[in-house]
Every structure is written in C-alpha cells, then in structure tokens.
Amino acid sequence: MLLKTELSKRRGFSLPIANGLRSTSVGFAQDRLNRLLGRLFSVALALSGTEVFINVYNQLPELDPFFGPLAALISLLSHLIFILTAWIGNRPEIGQQIHAVVSLVILVTWPIQVSNPESLPLSFQPWIWWVLGPAAIAAGLSMGRLWGSAVLVAMPVIWYFVHSSADGGSATNLRSIQDSLYTFLFSISFTLVLLLLRDQAAKADLAGEQLIQSEANKAAADASERERLRIGALIHDRVLTALIVAGKAKAPAEVNSSRELAKQAISALNAASEFGAQPDTAETSVGSLFKEIRRQFSTSNIEIDEAETSLKALPTNVAQAYLEATRQAVANSLQHAGPTANRIIILRGASSGFKIVVKDDGVGFRPSRVPKSRLGIRVSILERIESVGGKAYIDSRPGGGCSIILSWASQ
Asked: Which of 25, 92, 154, 255 has a Cα-to-Cα distance from 337 of 20 to 30 A?
C-alpha cells in the first residue's frame, strides 16, 4: 500500500522534458543522463574556454583597464563553476545556469568593457562571441522551457546590436546577421538534440514506473484474493459448522456444545485465524506442523503414519493453510466416507518440501461431480492450498475410498 501511495504521489508531477532542474519526478535513467550530459558538456566547455581566453589575452589592449579584465575574470569563474558542478555533487544545472546568466550579462554590458571604440581594428570580433553558443545551450538545458527559450533567442538578437555597434567592431548588417543566425542555429540544434535524449530517458523512467505500478496492483490483487479465500474457508470451517450444530441441537448438552462452537467461531473471526495476526514473513518448521497435526488427531481413531520429519523452515501462513486443509479433509472423511471406513494421515517431509495425505477406504465419490455449491473441498481445501502456492489433489472413485494429497515444494 505504501508503494502504491508513493507512486501515485510521483505520478502527480509532470516529467520535466525540457527542464534540467532536479525534482522528485526525475527518474533513474533521466538522472544518469543529466549527469553524463553535464560532464560531457563540461569537457567541451573546457576545450572551447581555451580559445576564449586566448582571444581575451589578445584583446586586452582594446579593453577598458578595469571593466575588461573584470568581465574576463568573472567569465573564467563561471567556466570553473560549470565544470566543478558537473563533476562534484548532484546539481550540474546550477553551474549551467550561472554560466548562462554571467555570459548574458557580459554581452549586455559589453560597451563599458571597451576603452576606445574608435581605436578598434577592422573586423574586430569581441571575445564574448566564443562564449555565446555554449552559454545558450546551457540556458536551454537548465532553465526550463520559458526562460531557456528566452535566452536562446535573446543572445543572438543582442549580439546583432552589439556587433554592429562601434563598441563591437562596427560590423556590417550582413555580417552581424550571419553571426547571429550562426549562434542561434548552433545553440538551438544542440539543445534540441540533448532535450530529445532527455525526453527518451524520461519515457524510459515512466515506463519503469508504470511497470512497478502494474506489479504493485497485481500483488495487491493477489493478496486480496488470498485473504478472501482464507476468510471464506474460515467461515466454512467454523461458522457454518457452528450454525449446523446449533440448528440440530435439542438436548441441553447439544445446546451447550453449539454455544461453545459459536464462541470459537467468533474468536476465530476476530483473530482472522490462529496465525492470522502474524506477518507473512514469520516462519515455523515442517516438523512443528507435523507435531501439531499429531496433537490434534491423537485422541481420534485415525492412524498417523509419519515416516520422515523435516526441520525445513516454513512460512507460518503456509503452515496454517495446510493445518486447516488437513482438518477439513478429515472432517469430510468423517462425514461422507461411512461409519466403517478406516482412516490414515500420512506425513512425509523432505529437503525439497513435504506431503500430507488424508486417506480412507470408504464409499468414495467422483470429484468431477461435486456441486460447486459444496465449499468444503473447493474452498477449504483446494483453493486454500493453492492460495499459498501449494498443490492439492483428490484421488477418489465410487467404492474405492478417497485420498486427499496436499504437497508443498520449497519456493
């Protein structure tokens, strides 16, 4: 139930296809891809950063003595933060956002970084040009659809005005448009490819989530069905028996007996069975199960043949199911096999599991002709054993007695 609740909470969030921000909705595949892309991107940025700062060094004579080196130093720090966050910690998008914002600010403030626009050489290309492409990609990956798209468009537009101005080298309109288009197409192409990869990773996470949800639903349905069968068998074994005895009771002793059976049935229902309050992970042993069977039938006229005993661990709910099914098999034999029938309970334990056989030499019957309304065999024996992963088989024919075989193989 806890797993289903947690999954339903997670499904309340939309998977961030174009959002680099980590959240509770980012799955395993997408998280790994984000880390890998961040590290690959940081290596590419380190290589391109070498060219950037070579151009910074060459352009220092044309830059303002204070603002020029300051902008270059801040850009260098943003490069380093980008690289460090990609390799240290689990938030690479922080470094990407810082780098994108710093680069945009440097681009906008470019006019104050130039000392004398009139002294700039022909075909002057501001060093910030080599930063724009990677910075725009970083914005597209880390800032979400709205802000990422805004930066992807803003950078080439601002570059056009900077480059065509005197502070940016007085480039012709054609040259400025070409450079702006190149920046835009370069950044948008890489961003779309990387976001497509992230989208596929998000789909893989969603498919995995849906598979887990499906398995959880199946497990819940199986648990509900097992509980239904267990309670149904309990009602048949205890409650219906008490009602039948009460309906036939006439003498005071029979009335007292029916009252006692009714009390036992109510107690069994409240406890949901002798072992019902214990978790499915609780264990007993095959030997303990056989010992309990011997104890319950030691005062009856039923022979018990126990040739082998196993100390193998056994889930408690399985032991309870086999004990109750054995009781019902004996009850069916006492009720239907005939007053002169001989009965025997055969107990066999082995390393691979165990087998219980309730056998009589009574009148027998055809199992295929037992009405579906008869719950003793169908619910209290067959379905009860199958609900815990065991096998039950009835071997009987008219005049040939009856054997009810209950077997369990280690899971």
From this structure: 255
Predicted confidence at residue 226, as pLDDT, reads: 63
pLDDT for 1 equals: 38
Hey, is 110 helix, strand or coil?
helix
**26: which 2 tokens?**
């980012």
**Token reading at 142:** 């880390």
Contact 226/388 with Cβ under 8 angstroms? yes
- Long-range contact list for 271-279, CB < 8 A, 24+ apart? 272/230, 272/231, 272/234, 273/230, 273/234, 273/320, 273/324, 274/320, 275/316, 275/317, 275/319, 275/320, 276/230, 276/320, 278/316, 278/317
Instruction: Give the other-Cβ count within 10 Å of 82's Cβ.
Output: 27
CA atoms of 227 and 265, how far apart (whole Å): 17
How far apart, in Å, are the Cα atoms of 207 and each of 27, 61, 199? Answer: 11, 58, 12
* Tokens coding 282: 């609780």
d(CA 408, CA 33): 46
Task: Dig out the tokens for 358 from the structure.
Answer: 């309730």
Contact 161, 184 (CB under 8 A): no
Please report, rounded to a whole number, the percentage of residues in the chain having pLDDT higher than 70. Answer: 75
Tokens describing residue 34: 């984000």
Q: What is the pLDDT of residues 53-94, one digit of tens each?
A: 999 999 999 999 999 999 999 999 999 999 999 999 888 999
pTM above 0.85, yes or no: no
What does the chain come to in residues? 411
Matching residue, tokens 């395993």: 28
In tens, the pLDDT along 6-19 reads 334 433 333 333 33
Provide CB contacts within 8 A for 160, sequence distance 6+.
176, 177, 179, 180
Count of CB atoms within 10 A of residue 245's CB? 17
Structure letter (DSSP) for residue 126? -
Q: Give the C-alpha separation, 181 to 164, whole Å.
A: 14
Mean pLDDT (the chain) is 81
Contact 95, 83 (CB under 8 A): yes
User: CA dihedral defined by 111, 114, 119, 124, rounded to 10 degrees?
Assistant: -80
- The tokens of 67 are what? 């603002």
